[in-house]
Amino acid sequence: MISEQKSEHTTNTAPGRFPSWLKRPIAHCGKQKDVLEKIHNSGLHTVCVEARCPNRSECYNLGTATFLILGTTCTRFCTFCSVNHGIPGPPDPDEPGKLVSAVSSLKLRHVVITSVTRDDLPDGGASVYADIITRLKKEIPGITVEVLIPDFKGDKDALLTVFEAKPDIFNHNVETVPRLYNQIRPQAIYQRSLDVLKYASEYGLVVKSGIMAGLGEQDEEVFGVMQNLLDHGCSIMTIGQYLRPSRSQTPVVAHVSPDKFSEYEKKGIDLGFRTVFAGPYVRSSYMAEQILNRTKSGCS
After folding, report:
1. What share of the chain is helix, strand, coil (3-state, %, to 5)?
2. How confident is the model at residue 268 (pLDDT cuts 50, 70, 90)?
3. How confident is the prediction for the chain on average, in pLDDT?
């Protein structure tokens, strides 16, 4: 089990000023400048910046980032997300080549690729994912590739396009408990997301999913999602604290303590997950390579 430093706090705190376990220094050394320059100069985007991820300085300093493909404008309007919403432009036909070059330049061993949701495209962008995965594996021997995809409206042909490129980790987040979908993911369907995960598992992929905590969910609802994910073939789960990116997004209901995240990890492992990674700053792609390695080695 991957765990974070324990806190003396064991109960949720009301939103407002950050509790002690959410306060940490911002790193300004390491490889941050090099990563930013290579990505910027390549004309690429990262979800780290577009979604205002609180881990971006840490990840950049370690020489890694999560690539955001298919533009920076999403066709959906999830209330937790700071990515631009609206009508996107056409995909950049040179993006796959640019991404492969950047990954090679950064000497990444494990790369995570996600995207905005592109309901305007016939296949949701699945063919672009497949092209990138295929090129990475062909041009950078030994690399492992993780994708964090939208639901492609549940289109099995689009999903199969990604499956056949053989990503090492297939990730699709359910994001929250089903009761909160109308508020948090109004254009998504909980069962459809579960079906996407099941289809990936049935194809033989290693399947990962995650949720945010602090949106008003109850423990029993979290445990219910865990069981649903297991029943649909998911073997890796992430749980992190929802942090409001700006005043435009839905407010935080509670700051969840590290002890509660540890409880979620233990419950998930007891239920049967191969790996559960839960903590205040955990995100879908945070420490993704370490999670993959632990999953391969059979450690939780």
Report:
1. 40, 15, 45
2. very high
3. 85
- List C-alpha distances in Å: 255 to 183, 213, 241, 247, 273: 19, 8, 7, 17, 25
pLDDT given at position 283: 82
Total residues found in the chain within this entry:
300
**Rg, C-alpha atoms of the chain:** 18
d(CA 137, CA 146): 12
- The runs of H, that is alpha helices, within 107-189 are 126-139, 156-163, 181-184
Dihedral sign from CA coordinates of 63, 68, 71, 73? negative
Question: Could you give the domains of the chain?
Answer: 20-297 (3.20.20.70)
Q: How far is CA 61 from CA 14, 33, 113, 177, in A?
A: 32, 8, 19, 33
CB 178 within 8 A of CB 144: no
- CA 131 – CA 114 distance, rounded (Å): 13
Q: Please state the pTM of the whole predicted model.
A: 0.87
Strands (E), 138-253: 144-148, 169-171, 207-213, 236-241
